[in-house]
Write a structure and sequence with these properties.
The protein is an alpha/beta fold. It has 13 helices and 20 strands. The strands form 5 sheets. The protein has a 10-stranded mixed beta sheet with strand order 9-7-5-2-10-1-11-15-19-20, with helices on both faces. It binds guanosine-5'-diphosphate (GDP), 6-O-phosphoryl inosine monophosphate and magnesium ion.
């Protein structure tokens, strides 16, 4: 038992970075398997904060291999900025490995992300504008550029010139936008390629050899279940598969080689960007959650939408990812609430639903059924043992576990690495 997947159960920003960093104390390798720099994972250690976008949240441990696997879309500029920022803070980055099969985010991807959102007008998705969707589109359209191309000067130049010719047609004729200059892009990206080349390898064999050798590997999901392109609130989703199944295709490690799945659950709910959010609180409760939780996006700074915990969504995430344990984060943000609500079922036309509706029109009509819990009105940020949590906090957590059918594995009571209560001591199965 040495492979553990960490996946977000809600709409992102659950605190995956914190949980990965905590578990990475024991890991040999941490792997990003999907998404790109749309992710913003914050890790706090000894009062220092690190905001990670492409780098796996194992980067703070010297000697831990950090893999950016084939399912990730890599923005080289962003990656190198992150590496430089880490180095300037004395963090060693020599153990980063990048898949030669990962796709590269190119300037046109960011531009089309921006233009696409403008064109959608009121129907915009509210993307992070990091070029993620357009990069995955080109991957599926078979005109993507991969890391193995980026580091091959001739092949890269040929591909960039070919693709820019096609993209410029769309830019000029559809968007009435100035064309891109392939030669300028080549000059910029060649400098990235020179720095990235030494980090590139076949991460499929690297990871499978590690699995066979019994190494401890953490797969770090970005985004979350409700942003999954198949299982989320489509079309208000990202373009990849954040559920645990994403590891199979995104890292080339087969499903039967995954031992444990941990779903990260924020003790309440947030969402950035557009789309349905059944338990959203557009009132003073929502405002209080936002203020108490400093709920503003890591990547874009946008205020996050806030609401009560939706246990239906968490249960769904558990089903999809085969979750063994929940890691509940940010429980401390609820410290000052007199009462706390949890949605334990959806009702439609007076009937309890068994499923999360696919149709957004139907989802918009569901009525969350709430259970109300008395708050604990105590500062829990220094609690380190489950039994020391206030009874009301334990009642809330235990009901969450009961409704979702998922065991409690970790409870996080603060951003720092040590503000962590562990119930499942052997997540790596020792
Ligand atoms: P991610 O995208 O899932 O990694 O989550 P983000 O990093 O975007 O957002 C979670 C935020 O909550 C970050 O600022 C974390 O440092 C912080 N955080 C994580 N766990 C806790 C916790 O238990 N309590 C508090 N107060 N903050 C936490
Ligand atoms: P982490 O890993 C929260 C949201 C965007 C938008 C939708 C599509 O930090 O949890 P995209 O740029 O991916 O095409 O945007 O997905 N989104 C996130 N929301 N956390 C994230 O990452 C997100 N990554 C994308 O806001 O609604
Ligand atoms: Mg985030």
């Amino acid at each position: 038992m040495s492979t553990v997947v960490i996946s977000g159960a809600q709409w992102g920003d659950e605190g995956k970075g914190k949980i990965v960093d905590y578990l990475a104390q024991q890991a040999d390798t941490v792997v990003r398997f999907q998404g790109g720099s749309n992710a913003g994972h914050t890790v706090a250690v000894n009062g220092e904060e690190y905001k990670l976008r492409l780098l796996p949240s194992g980067i703070l441990y010297k000697g831990t291999t950090c893999v950016i696997a084939n399912g990730v879309v890599v923005d080289p500029q962003c990656l190198l900025e992150e590496i430089d920022a880490m180095n300037s803070r004395g963090i060693d980055t020599s153990n980063i490995r990048i898949s030669n099969r990962a796709h590269v985010v190119m300037p046109w991807h960011k531009l089309f992300d921006e233009l696409g959102e403008q064109m959608r007008g009121d129907n915009k998705i509210g993307t992070t504008k990091r070029g993620i969707g357009p990069c995955y589109i080109d991957k599926a359209d078979r005109i993507g550029i991969r890391v193995c191309d980026l580091i091959d000067r001739e092949e890269f130049a040929k591909k960039v010139r070919d693709v820019v010719r096609v993209k410029n047609l769309t830019l000029e004729k559809v968007y009435n936008h100035a064309p891109l200059d392939a030669e300028e892009i080549l000059r910029e990206y060649e400098t990235y390629a020179d720095r990235i080349r030494p980090l590139v390898c076949d991460t499929i064999s690297l990871l499978n050899n590690q699995v066979d050798a019994g190494k401890k590997i953490l797969f770090e999901g970005a985004q979350a279940t409700m942003l999954d392109i198949d299982y989320g609130t489509y079309p208000y989703v990202t373009a990849s598969h954040p559920i645990s199944g994403g590891v199979g295709v995104g890292a080339g490690v087969a499903p039967k080689k995954i031992d444990t799945v941990v779903s990260v659950v924020k003790a309440y709910c947030t969402r950035v960007g557009e789309g349905p959010f059944p338990t959203e609180q557009l009132n003073e409760i929502g405002e209080k959650l936002r203020t108490a939780g400093h709920e503003f996006g890591t990547v874009t700074g946008r205020p996050r939408r806030t609401g009560w915990l939706d246990a239906c969504v968490v249960k769904y995430a558990g089903q999809l990812s085969g979750t063994d344990y929940m890691a509940v984060t940010r429980l401390d943000i609820l410290d000052s609430f007199d009462e706390i609500k949890m949605c334990t079922a959806y009702k439609l036309d007076g009937k309890i639903l068994d499923e999360i509706p696919a149709s957004l029109n139907v989802l918009a009509k569901v009525e969350p059924v709430y259970e109300t819990f008395a708050g604990w009105k105590t500062d829990i940020s220094n609690v380190r043992r489950y039994e020391d949590l206030p009874e009301n906090a334990r009642k809330y957590l235990e009901r969450m576990s009961e409704v979702t059918g998922i065991k409690l594995g970790i409870v996080s009571v603060g951003a720092n690495r040590d503000q962590t209560i562990v119930l499942a001591e052997n997540i790596f199965g020792e």
